[in-house]
Amino acid sequence: MPDDKTIVARTKHGELTLEQIAELQPGLGMLMREINDRYWIAYYAAQGGNWLLAAYQLRATRKRFADGALTRPKHKGMLDAYTAKILEPLLQHCDASDFAAFEQTYRHGITLANQMHVATKHGEIIWKLPPHPPGHLELGS
């Protein structure tokens, strides 16, 4: 059976081994840029009463966490725990249109994320909610 260094995918641009394709998959650093934006948007959408947009952003965040758990399995437990403790309850708060509960869980999520950054030896990353909503989306209901 061939190994991942001999299996080749051919494109119009050339050939890539399975190992090269695996290395192209996004790591958490790349995924976190999208997660950051979606988490930010979710807060201000919920604050504005646009619960559908907030939930959409949180579901997309959950998907990026699942992608990160797949491409960086050493962080799977932490990502799954965050999903269970923060993202799933936030989605429930969206369903209930309960901003007070949403905000409490959301802010706990910020604290937990920053604790996880320390645990993964990236204490230099301290996430905070931007003070202003993003201007490129309608965030009201």
Structure explained in plain terms:
The longest helix is centred in the middle third of the chain and has 21 residues, at 51-71. The mean pLDDT is 91. The protein is mainly α and 141 residues long. α2 packs antiparallel against α3 (51-71), α3 (51-71) packs antiparallel against α4 (76-96) and α4 packs antiparallel against α5 (99-119). It contains five helices and two strands, in the order ββααααα. The protein is elongated and about 55 Å long. The N and C termini lie far apart (56 Å). It has a domain at 28-119: Up-down Bundle (Four Helix Bundle (Hemerythrin (Met), subunit A)). Strands 1-2 form a two-stranded antiparallel sheet.
Helical/strand content category: mainly alpha
What radius of gyration results from the CA coordinates?
18 Å
What's the total number of strands?
Answer: 2
Strand arrangement within the widest β-sheet reads 1-2
Q: Count of DSSP helices?
A: 5
Distance between the termini: 56 Å
Helix content: 55-70%
CATH topology of one domain: Four Helix Bundle (Hemerythrin (Met), subunit A)
User: What is the CATH-assigned architecture of one domain?
Assistant: Up-down Bundle
Summarize model confidence as the mean pLDDT. Answer: 91
> Strand portion, in percent?
5-15%
Global shape: elongated
Helix-strand sequence: EEHHHHH
Q: Under the CATH scheme, which class of one domain?
A: Mainly Alpha
Reported for the largest beta sheet, the result is: 2 strands, antiparallel
